[in-house]
Task: structure prediction
Amino acid sequence: MATGTQGGPGRRGHLQVVNTICQDINYNDTGAATGIATGKWLPAGAILLSTDVSVNTAFNAATTNVLTIGLNGTTANNIVATVAATAGLVANLLPTGTALGKLAVDSQVYVKYTQTGAAATTGNATFIIKYAGVVS
Result:
């Protein structure tokens, strides 16, 4: 039934299934060091199950290469606290803090890449957030 009221930006399905959000990050994406707003939203009522991170091309800064994902642009670390950005798949990372339990409001996903030492010249990763939408 149409209500004339626009919904939030988070995807809400009518089926009780596991949904996903998938996004890439590159070593040279603008804002990666401070947290990138992905434009992907988790809907209010969603329960985060786990996240997979596939590092497709290793990030190669000289000292530190860390990826984090979260619901806050500045820290971006409550969905995935930390992943070493070496090639391979890291599966079933569990959320922490305010990303636990039902989300109270539509929440944008942020991703961050932290590097130290000589700057990276390569690096690409894909993350897949798995969540259940609450259907009333």
